[in-house]
Amino acid sequence: MPGPGYSDIAKSRCERVIALRVKQAYDQTYAAGAAEVRKRADEIRRIQLRTNPPQGDWSKFSVQPLTMINRKPRHAQLVYLHVADGPGLTPAEQPIVMVWRSRKLDDGSDMELQPTGGATQVRRDADGKTYDPNQPYQYIVSRLSAQTGAMRDVGQIERATRSPHAVVEGPDVVFLAAADALFVVSESKTERFDAARGLPGDKVSCLAWLGQRLYIAMEGGIAEFDPVSQQFNLVATSKAVTRRHKLDGGQPYDVTSMLADRKHNCIWLSVDGRSTPERTGIWRYTLQSGELQQVNSDRTSLLTWSDGAIFYMIRNHGIVTGNTIRGRWPFYLLDPSNATASSLEGIMPFGPSIPGMQPPGWVFLKGYILTAPGNLTSPTSRGNPYQSLYPWQIVQRLGDGALVAARRVSSSNQDIDVRLWRVEPLKGE
Predict the structure, then answer these.
(1) What gap in Å lies between CA 292 and CA 283, rounded to an integer?
(2) What's the pLDDT at 135?
C-alpha cells in the first residue's frame, strides 16, 4: 500500500509532466512561428532591394549573404568572430574562426544563454531540477569557409567561467584568451594555461601570432609563448627591476591592441600608459633584434589592417562642433614601412556603439569607413546607412572587402539567429 503523502507526490509529478508538455508544445509553436517571421522578413527585404536598389555610396559595393552550412543546435550563441588579416592576404588565406556558447553543459543541464550579473540566481525547470544561470558555459570553436559557408568544429572549451574575448589562429590550433586564462584548442585536445601553468600575468587583453610564437598582452606586460615547449618568456613587464626599455618597470599599463606584421617581421602595439602618459602611443616590437620602440604618442584603442596600412582612431581627439572638430582629426593611416601616420581629414566621428557590437565595429574600405550597424562614412558622405532588417554588430576585414554579422535573440532568449554577409567593392570602383 502506498504510504502517507503518496497522492501529493503523484499530483506533483503529474503537474511537472503537464508543465513540461506545455513548454514543449509552446517551444515547437514558437520555433515554427519564428521561422515563418524570418522567412517573411527575408522576402520583404528581397522585394525592397529589387524595387529600391542601394543608393549613393552603397551602389559602389556588393552585399551578398553568406549562408552557414553545418550549423548545429549546439552552436547556440555567437560570442566572437575572428578573421585573420594582414597585407596581401586573400579571402582563401584568411581563416575565419567562430566561437559559440553552447546551450548545454557537458552534463546535459539546460542553461540560460545570457545570465544576469550580480547575485547568483537559482531557478527550477519543468522537472524540478535547480540550476544556476551564472555557472560556467561550454564554448565551441569552429572554422568557417568564406567561399562556401561550410563550418566545421575545431574543438571546445569545457566549463569556462569567462567568455573568450580575443582569438588568433596558429598552425592547426586556435588560441583564445579569457580574462584569467589562455586556451589552446585543437581537434585532439584543449589545454588551459593560467598562473599555475606559467602564464606570467592575468587580465589578458589581446593576442598575436608571428614567427611560430604567440604574443600575449596582459596588464602591465607582454609575453611570448612557445606552443612546442609550452614555455612563457617576458618581452616587457612593469614588474621588472632592471629596465631594458620604457615598458619595463614603473606603474602598470594596458596593451589594448596588437597586429602581426609578417612582411616586416614585427608586432605593432597600442599602449595606454595610464598614470605614465609618456608610455602611451603606438609601439613596434621587432622579432629579429628584440627591440621595442615607440613610434608615436597617439592614444588609440584598436589597430586594424587596411590595404597594407594600419588604420586607427585617436581617442579623445577633440570636440565636435557642427561639422568641424576643434583639435585633431580622429582617423589615421600608418605606413608600416616607415612608421609615419597621415590623417584622414574630413571624416567625422561616427555615433555610439550598438548593443552586442564586437570591437572595433569598423573597417576602412576604399576611402570609406564601414561601421556597425551598416554605415558608410567618407569626407563627402556623413553616414550612408544600409537598409537592412538586421543591424550589423560585427565588422571584420576580409580580402578587399569585409565580413559582417548580425546576431538576434528571441524574446524567449532561446532562439539565436546569426546572419553573415560579404561586402565587396564593385570592380572598377
Answers:
(1) 7
(2) 57
CA–CA distance, 249 with 240 (Å, rounded to integer):
5
Nearest partner of 139 among 156, 115, 161, judged by Cα? 156
**pLDDT class for 225, splitting at 50, 70, 90?**
very high
CB atoms within 10 A of CB 209: 21
- Going from the C-alpha of 356 to that of each of 208, 294, 336, the distances in angstroms are 24, 33, 32
- Residue 284: strand pairing partners: 268, 293
Please compute the mean of the pLDDT values over residues 275-282 and round it to a whole number: 91
At residue 292, the 3 state secondary structure works out as: strand
Q: CB atoms < 10 A from the CB of 143, how many?
A: 15
- Does residue 265 come out as left (phi exceeding 0), alpha (psi in the -120 to 50 range) or beta? left
Among residues 58, 63, 61, 26, which one has the least CA distance to residue 46?
63
State the chain's mean pLDDT as an integer: 78
Confidence (pTM): 0.79
**364-384 exposure pattern, b = at least 16 Cβ within 10 A, e = fewer:** bbbbbbbbbbbbbbbeebeeb
- Indicate the SS3 state at residue 23: helix
Evaluate whether 100 touches 111 at the Cβ level (below 8 Å).
no
Task: Return the minimum-mean-pLDDT range out of 48-57, 335-344, 358-367.
Answer: 48-57
pLDDT tens column, 378-414: 877 766 788 777 788 999 999 889 999 988 765 544 4
Quote the cell numbers at residue 51: 524595387
For the beta sheet containing 181-185, the strands, ordered from the edge strand earlier in sequence to the opposite edge, are: 166-170, 173-178, 181-185, 190-193
Q: 267 or 132: whose pLDDT is higher?
A: 267
pLDDT in tens, 82-115: 998 877 677 777 889 999 987 554 445 544 433 3
Cβ 362 vs Cβ 350: under 8 Å: yes
Cell 574562426 maps to which residue? Answer: 97
Please state, as a whole number, how many other Cβ atoms lie within 10 Å of the Cβ of residue 245: 16
124 by Cβ neighbours in 10 Å (0-12 / 13-18 / 19+) ranks as exposed
Selection from 416, 360, 423, 367 nearest residue 82 by Cα: 360
Query: Cα-Cα-Cα-Cα dihedral of 207, 403, 310, 321, to 10°?
Result: -110
DSSP 3-state assignment of 396? strand
Closest CA to 306 of 333, 329, 330: 333
Mark residue 280 as left, alpha or beta (left: phi above 0; alpha: psi -120 to 50; beta: remaining).
beta
The residue type found at 351 is G
**How many CB atoms are located within 10 Å of the residue 409 CB?**
14
